[in-house]
Write the structure tokens for this entry.
Amino acid sequence: MAHFFAMGGYAAYVWPSYGVTFLGLAAAIILTWRSYAHAKRVLASAEKGDRS
């Protein structure tokens, strides 16, 4: 198991790349979710006839 986590000596490159990928995907999900919530608010406001 330790050999797996050492990644054949390349762990210093492999694990940070997994971390950067995870952070990038998490940021994309969060930003998409926030944009969706904002669009829902704008649509609800437009449907009510508000101008703000």
About this structure: The chain has a mean pLDDT of 92. The two ends are 58 Å apart (CA to CA). The helical segments are 2-6, 11-48. The chain has two helices and no strands.
